[in-house]
Amino acid sequence: MLALVTGASSGIGLQYATALARDYHTDLLLVSNQLEEQKQVALKLAEEYGVKTVPLYMDLSLPDAAEQLHSWCCGQGLEVDILINNAGVFFFNPFVETDIKRLELMLMLHVVTVAKMCRLFGEDMCRRGNGYILNMSSMSAWMAYPGIQTYNSTKAFIYNFSKSLWYEFRPKGVGITVMTPGAVDTALFGLAPKYRKLAVNLTVSIPPEKLVVKALRRMFKKKKWGMPGLLNHLATPLLKHTPDWLVFLTYRWVAQFQK
């Protein structure tokens, strides 16, 4: 099998690539906008686990990135059996103070490219009668929260989009799974190292390797949705009904921990 992993040079994407090579002996197409890092990752995984790895540099925030990537795969004769839409960005900032280009980048990467990737590669999988797609959403999909207003909205799109597609793809033999983790211990959220360590120790944050193990298990079972952690399941209903005064209070408190 061949797995296409986006954002594969670091963070959660790197963990997905590693777990697929190590635990499932899956060949890898690693797509990232970090040229040197992805080359090193591809070489390391190929040497350690004996799988074929192809590093491909691409900016997935460009309007036609999905079409270019799909066309490149077709030209190379590559059939993608597993698609992991992991590439993403995060910023914590007041909306009117956020540069328009950063807003465009997030919307393109989380909404447009994800939808197009599912459309193009999903069609191929449905035609073959088998395949797996894993999309990364977030617990923030249920949150109306200042500072992450664009992030949580795009993650809500991914969540509803993926669950809706599950009904279309599943009868055709293709699984589409969406994961909605809470805090994950990566550099994406911009927390200082000491606070990242504290969050993991308090089980508020989950190490990315643990998230990936759970996500891949659900993906290969063609489950519709997954969220690791009992605490997250218990907290989700509360996120939908958080009182305004508490939102204002936590917003001021969280802001002080950003770098």
Describe the structure.
This protein has 259 residues and is α/β, with parallel strands linked by helices. The protein has a single domain, classed as NAD(P)-binding Rossmann-like Domain (Rossmann fold), CATH 3.40.50. 52% of the residues lie in helices and 15% in strands. The chain contains nine helices and nine strands. A seven-stranded parallel sheet has the order 3-2-1-4-5-6-9, with helices on both faces. Strands 7-8 form a two-stranded parallel sheet. β2, α2 and β3 form a beta-alpha-beta unit. α1 packs across α7. The protein starts with a strand and ends with a helix.
What is shown here, in short?
It is built from 9 helices and 9 strands.
For the sheet with most strands, the description reads:
7 strands, parallel
Question: How many structural domains?
Answer: 1
How is the CATH topology named?
Answer: Rossmann fold
Q: Helix count, per DSSP?
A: 9
- Shape by Cα distribution: globular
User: Separation of termini?
Assistant: 41 Å
N to C succession of SSEs: EHEHEHEHEHEEHEHEHH
Q: Could you give the count of β-strands? A: 9
Spans of at least 5 consecutive residues whose pLDDT stays below 50 are 198-202
Rg, nearest Å: 18 Å
Mean pLDDT: 91
Strand content: 5-15%
Task: Identify the CATH class.
Answer: Alpha Beta
State the helicity in percent bands.
40-55%
Q: For the record, what is the CATH homologous superfamily label?
A: NAD(P)-binding Rossmann-like Domain
